Amino acid sequence: MNLSLRQLKVFLGVAESSSFTKTAQRLHLSQAALSAIIRELETQLQCRLLDRTTRTVNLTEAGRVFVPTAAHIVQVLENSAVEVARMGREERRVLRVGVTPHIAVSMMPTVLGRFLEAHPGVRVELTDLPPGELLRRVESGSLDVAFGAFFDKTSGIDRVLVFPTHLVMVSPLDQAFAWARPENGAVTWKSLQDAPLICFPSDNPIQRIVDANLASEYVSASSRMVVNHLETAIAMAEAGFGLAILPSVSYATCQRYRVRFDSIHPMIELSFDCITQSGRGNMETLQQLSAVFAEVAMTFANKSRGAKPAPRKKKADVPGA
Description:
This protein is about 45% helix and about 25% strand. It is of the alpha/beta class and about 325 residues long. It comes from Massilia soli.
């Protein structure tokens, strides 16, 4: 049996009006179409619901028994449709957004301020977590979207580039590391030979990229200070403990520190992505939030000090990924 809401509504319309003609007009159907729908319903139920003559339409005993059941089913379905539509509207008004901690403290106040000004009816629930945990939460559906540099390839996740980022050298504004800046002003991987470096743990994806490029140029550091957090690396660079090699998206975080930026040649390009669960569909609000992210990132980049354009780009490959 495969009853449809349309069949039930047509039957209830005829039962109420006792007229095929009036019901067809009200439901914007031809009488032939309406008659066919009633025949399909009776065939599926294997009984006559209506006695039809040239002048009258009356309910059979089975038809009278079926009326309250059909009315209840229609009411339940229509109420459910209204509730689901309400939930859909509510879901579109709430965005569960994940970002990495340094993005949360640097860019998100500006991003959310601009976005919510343009979309006052949207509520954003913000979560700040490491990239791996953000990826897992998007995959499980507990986050609608996450923003960051994600290196792990995961099935079931859609990625959209928000803006490109690249590796830069961060050094103290008040001290000169002459060995890192040749006379022509360009910083190269070779020019980092014997420089003190502030590094992340060896299993960090960014650090793996840095180490691979240093190794390809046979460059060794005079010392390495290992820290876990991006902002710690910036603070240590400001204090003169060494050079930090970070994604250029850290421009935003570095606004609070007396440091300068230099692009390293050849430039190693990374991606700052928006990730969502596959098949979720592109919500217009997510696209608009991504656009605000890109706009804010560009603003911070334009304010950065000492950053220079690189003559050529090299796409980053994460060793062992």
